[in-house]
Amino acid sequence: MSVKLEDTLKDENLIKRLEEIAKDTALLHGVLMRTKDTPNSPEVVSYAPFTLFPTSVPAALFHQALAVQTQFNRLVDRVSQNHSFLEDTLASTIKVDDFTARLFNIYKQVQQEGHAQKIVVGLNRSDYMLDHSPDGRTSLKQIEINTIAASFGGLASRTPDVHRHILKVANLPDECSLVLDNNPAAGLAKGLAKAWELYGSKRAVVLFLVENVQRNIYDHRYVENELWKRNIPVIRRQFEDVFRTGSLDESKRLFVDGHEVAIVYFRNGYMPQNYTSEQSWEVRLMMERSVAVKCPDISTHLAGTKKVQQELARPGVLECFFPDEPETVAQIRATFAGLYTLDMGEEGDNTVAMALANPDQYVLKPQREGGGNNIYGSEICEVLEKLKNSSERTAYILMDKIQPVPVQNILLRPGAPLKVSSCLSELGAFGAYVRKGSELMLNECVGHLLRTKSSEHADGGVAAGVAVLDNPLLV
What we know:
ATP binding, Glutathione_synthase_N_euk, Glutathione synthetase, magnesium ion binding, EC 6.3.2.3, 6-stranded mixed beta sheet
């Protein structure tokens, strides 16, 4: 954080004045969430939690994250098309993880029938933290890549103006210019629009498959409105709606409520609890079998699992996906943290021993999205002592714990006291790609996201109620 910003944080009177201005500015700019009490009603809304000030991020590492995103898009797409790699990689996981197994069963069924649709659209977000090594170097290390329901592209499009206004009022005009424009909502919509055009029916709709509780609806609405601007019709439905009113015709076209569906955009379906009944699984299978374009399709969903992430970090694996592109391999590999298998056998046994000896140096990760699932410190010992001789340990991977340097900021949340906190940040880069058959029609990095949380919280994102929205201040 700049010296001026640090001094500003010490000025209690100014901070108190900025608090009200900041919250009003967030509301004025549409940085919104529905409330916990009325998550499905637009009658009462609040600001989405955010930092009072933007957080300093080294410009070189920020640009590195954006530059590598198109290569991660290509990697995810290639992994999704490699049946033997997915089958071999997930073989141990699907024996012990029921959720991944059910997804994989749908994948196998679609493989056997043959893909009804040759158009693929991927909207993903690769998340990083800045690792500070003992020798003083700072490097960009990937936490994970989200290939389904990657969120906050909408709200992140609105936060730069909020922070610029706060900096102006705080008499920090020089810092204003270091907050970049950002519009992931438009970029994500561009990917969906390209796939919709390729589908080739002007009457067909984009179906947002959404959760029952919709606190984060405004994040969706920004992407939705970008599509409407292009005269692309959008409908929002839940699993149960599609079960009631959805069907395939003899050509495997998907119809919901009488609308032909060009694209199913999954903003749901990434966690076991999203599938509230067998009907939800039947709907997922029906959608995957249809000629509707899926964002993501089932193979791309599986390509985002932690086990695939761990396998891609093995020596020689990236080279299989980019056989004649050593620079691409180096660019991607530079962002990898240490990742270790817990498969049964000597290699997995060594990983268990390593984790038990130094649990504070690692993170134990299950095959889950949505934040708040990872295991740290002494809890790693509890889990691995229980599972070390059981195949159930293969439901997890082990990863080096990234060591960022905390910074001071103020986290603004409804009902929370105004106080300076020690904070850690996570940088995300949004990617959009569209492929038709073997031809990549679009491949772009479409924006970024910075989320910040108090350093006392080990895990969890904005939707999980731990992190808040932020902006990088490039230094």
